[in-house]
Design brief:
Mean pLDDT: 81
Radius of gyration: 36 Å
Helix content: 40-55%
Largest sheet: 11 strands, mixed
Number of strands: 23
Number of helices: 25
Strand order of the largest sheet: 15-16-19-20-18-21-17-14-22-13-23
Length: about 850
């Protein structure tokens, strides 16, 4: 008989056995199919979220042939416009934007549609782009994706994003204030995106609606339409002129590699980190599936011993017996993988539709990554075959005569491969605490975790044997469970290892997350004393806002000036000015800013000055937060850097002032350094004399505000024009509750599933032992106690090993997370922060196995039928 015929026969027998053993087949199908389903869902979500330039083209280009941006210097780019770069000559600034006429000059005969935008704050903290574009030409079709209404057709009409419409409570036809202009809402939709962020704020108006002006953050892009396509040669020519180009023709017909730019200068090579992480994840999932499904195949093979012995007695070779078992694994693996992939594909559209409502995540056009789907199915079959490999080898070498007469085979008591296990654990630990603790060592930690887990799998039989030796001191039910676990190591090892692998990953994740959270809590920097409320106003003096807010809340808000300013384009101001103290010793105060205030204003901000310091401030000197800021002559140097908003060259100068050290702290805080009002302070008359521009953009409350007062302040701010905000210093506001619940929930479910499935297989395999217990007078309570004890032994042993295994990777992962920061605060130390979440670990080790024990005791049958017992 040929090998193909033998496999055909084995597969036919496997299909029959799968139909006969429905319970065991369903269990294996769930263990193999569920990871495949999740893998298919995740790959589909990733493909849907990853919008390619070709998918984004309809919303980005509309019906035009190309989209151009002016860079001002020659550039080199990839055909899809995602990579590349360029630089201007060192001795001159980028050339000014030539505008639509310049685009027509380089593309004669083309129609040009200008899209102008500026990033603004609409209301509260809702930031987003403000755009002006004529959406009436045919080339603009598709730019605006409307959900309601129509596109703007005249000056004063706008389309709002759904989120901004909700924030402004604006109905169609309503007149609302958008960026200081009264406009009419004629539509709701998104612009230029096939995967809009649900919480995105933005507005699109007809040209002239917002009077964006020139420079000062205004960005121009140009849509081009003409009879001939914009080819790759046209793109390269436009690149040399200073334009960045996205071409419809080039996206649909990419040029050959030989015609493209060599972008190695701009892209330092492909990062292989993602591929390495993917390999590690696939290996870990494959190992987990093998460990979970292994006991099911072991129990199934044990129950088929007689059938397989008949096959051997009829002339079948050990290879035929192995082929029969592996054929069952192939049938179950293929069937469950295909079903799992189908369920994943069926569930993905629902997840894509629902997920944005829960997590504020936008998705692109629905897309399926078919190679990933095929890979998931293949991996499911491979995992099933690997899980059945050891039971197949064992049954192929069984005593045929003993199996035919019903004698139970003596269980294997091998101690695994302890030397190999120790070697893998040693290598994993070495990688953990060398490469793993370096910055960017997360991949090394993940790889070493897989090595440590695999090494512990090889050591698990030895550990089980050691535990079995102490079972004699335990109560009856636990003693029976421990001895059965130690005796049936071929079944117990993969079951315990599956729980161990799950808990090991969760332990490492829990330690790393808890340590990172604790580090963030310790390193939190207070901006103001606890309970302080500060108003902020961008672009205009805050005095009027402070008075209105103070009257609403019944408190006094005292403004203070900050040196530096941003010009108001609408007032004809195109310059921004940055002012900072020139010093290398700013670290202890975490600021280089210069405040402009009187002594009375400083007192309201918590800064108490001596008479001499007040006199220094009054006579044109400066106060600094520490003597290390002063130069050798006892003066402070303040750099004033003025730059045009259009990027052309500006000029810088340095102001040198007599200075005295002063305590500029605003009050004590629970941890870290005391916040200072600024690194240096000068009086308003000094700023005027030295031509240092400043803005009065902050105001502080004279007392701690109640919740009602804060609501009153915010209500008053909503009635005022401009972009105001409030900030109340509450200290570190992070919480570990969500992560804690997720870790306990995910870990608990994973451990519970692994423990219950392993316990169910152990109880099915122990039916003859239960019959023996019943024959000698054991009651239902004893049998249920043994079932519960089996769950406790498997769960506790697996979880305890998992905690021990995951401890080292968790510490190694926490090391770079909590020490790779730009500096340690005073009093917090410079080393890594390690925080062990003992509550999570104790829950996984003790609470979850007890839940599994209770479930096992409830579902275990109190009475079992007596079976015929043959002499052994």
């Amino acid at each position: 008989m040929s090998a193909l015929a033998r496999w055909r026969l084995a597969l036919r027998m496997a299909r029959r056995d799968v139909r006969r053993s429905k319970g065991r087949s369903a269990l294996v199908a769930v263990m193999v199919g569920t990871p495949v389903m999740l893998a298919v869902m995740l790959s589909t979500l990733y493909a849907t979220d990853d919008v390619t330039p070709l998918e984004a083209m309809p919303a980005q280009l509309g019906s035009s042939e190309a989209q151009l941006w002016w860079k001002g210097f020659p550039v080199q780019q990839s055909p899809d416009g995602q990579d590349g770069g360029g630089s201007s000559a060192e001795d001159r600034a980028p050339e000014p934007d030539p505008g639509p006429d310049g685009v027509r000059a380089v593309l004669p005969g083309a129609e040009v549609l200008e899209v102008r935008s500026r990033f603004v704050t609409f209301v509260g903290r809702a930031d987003g782009p403000l755009r002006e574009v004529d959406t009436t030409p045919p080339m603009a079709d598709g730019l605006v994706d409307l959900t309601d209404g129509r596109t703007p057709e005249r000056v004063g009409e706008v389309v709002l994003t759904p989120h901004l419409r909700d924030r402004l409570d604006a109905a169609l036809g309503a007149t609302v204030d958008v960026a200081g202009r009264d406009v009419t809402v004629v539509g709701v939709g998104t612009f230029g995106s096939v995967d809009p962020y649900p919480l995105a704020s933005g507005a699109v108006g007809f040209p002239g609606t917002f009077d964006l002006g020139e420079g000062n953050g205004v960005e121009n892009e140009y849509l081009v339409d003409r009879d001939a396509p914009v080819t790759w040669e046209d793109v390269k020519r436009l690149n040399s002129e200073g334009f960045w180009v996205i071409s419809r023709h080039v996206l649909e017909n990419p040029p050959p590699a030989s015609a493209r730019y060599d972008l190695d200068a701009w892209n330092a090579g492909q990062d292989t980190t993602e591929q390495a992480v993917l390999v590690i994840i696939v290996t870990a999932v494959l190992l987990q599936v093998v460990l979970l499904a292994g006991p099911a195949f072991a129990v199934g093979v044990r129950r088929q011993r007689r059938d397989l012995a008949l096959l051997a007695a009829a002339g079948g070779t050990p290879a035929d017996v192995r082929r029969t078992v592996l054929a069952q694994a192939a049938v179950l693996g293929a069937g469950s993988s295909v079903v799992g992939a189908a369920l994943g594909l069926a569930a993905s559209p629902l997840v894509v539709a629902v997920l944005p409502r829960w997590f504020d995540e936008g998705f692109g056009p629905y897309d399926v990554m078919w190679p990933a789907v095929a890979a998931a199915v293949v991996l499911g079959v491979v995992a099933s075959l690997l899980a059945a490999l050891v039971p197949a080898r064992q049954v192929a070498n069984q005593d045929v005569t003993a199996a035919l007469v019903g004698h139970r085979a003596a269980p294997s008591r091998r101690n695994g491969w302890p030397l190999v296990g120790l070697a893998l654990v040693a290598v994993g630990l070495g990688v953990c605490f060398t490469a793993g603790i370096q910055p960017g060592g997360e991949t090394a930690v993940a790889a070493s975790t897989v090595a440590i887990v695999l090494g512990t799998v090889f050591l698990t039989p030895l550990v089980i044997g050691l535990v079995g030796r102490v079972g004699g001191r335990l109560p009856l039910t636990l003693r029976l469970a421990v001895r059965d676990t130690a005796r049936q190591r071929s079944r117990s090892t993969p079951a315990i290892a599956a729980v161990m692998a799950t808990v090991a990953g969760l332990t490492a994740l829990a330690i790393a997350n808890a340590s990172d959270f604790e580090h963030d809590r310790r390193s939190y920097e207070f901006t103001y004393p606890v309970g302080t409320t500060v108003l902020s106003e961008g672009g205009r003096p805050i005095d009027a806002v402070a008075r209105a807010a103070g009257e609403a809340a019944g408190v006094a808000f005292t403004p203070i000036g900050t040196a530096g300013r941003v010009g108001d384009e609408r007032a004809g101001e195109g310059w921004w000015t940055d002012v900072a103290v020139e010093t290398e010793e700013w670290g202890p105060w975490a600021t280089t800013s210069v405040a402009v205030a009187t002594a009375e204003e400083l007192a309201a901000w918590g800064v108490e000055l001596t008479p001499d310091q007040i006199e220094t401030l009054r006579t044109g000197g400066a106060l600094v937060a520490g003597p290390s800021v002063l130069d050798a002559g006892g003066r402070v140097r303040v750099a004033v850097d003025e730059q045009p908003a259009d990027g052309t060259s500006g000029h810088s100068r340095t102001v040198s002032l007599d200075a005295s050290p002063a305590d500029l702290g605003m009050g004590a805080v629970p941890q870290g350094r005391e916040p200072v009002v600024a690194l240096a302070v000068i009086a308003p008359q000094t700023a005027q004399a030295q031509a240092v521009p400043y803005e009065r953009s902050r105001a502080i409350a004279d007392s701690i505000l109640s919740d009602q007062q804060l609501r009153d302040v915010r209500a008053a701010l909503r009635e005022l024009p401009g972009e105001q905000s409030t900030w109340t210093e509450q200290g570190f506001g992070g919480t570990f509750t969500v992560q804690l619940l997720l870790l306990i929930g995910a870990g608990g479910i994973a451990v519970l599933i692994g423990t219950l499935s392993a316990t169910g297989l152990a109880l099915a395999d122990a039916r003859p032992d239960f019959a023996t217990l019943a024959a000698v007078g054991a009651g239902p309570r004893t049998r249920r106690g043994v079932a519960a004890a089996q769950a406790v032994v498997l769960g506790v042993l697996g979880a305890l090993l998992g905690v021990l295994v995951g401890f080292a990777p968790g510490l190694a992962a926490a090391w770079p997370l909590t020490s790779e920061r730009w500096g340690a605060l005073e009093g917090t130390g410079s080393g890594p922060v390690i925080d062990i979440p003992w509550g999570i670990l104790a829950t996984l080790v003790f609470v979850v196995p007890l839940i599994a024990a209770g479930a096992s005791a409830i579902v275990t049958r109190g009475r079992v039928p007596l079976t015929r017992r043959l002499a052994q």
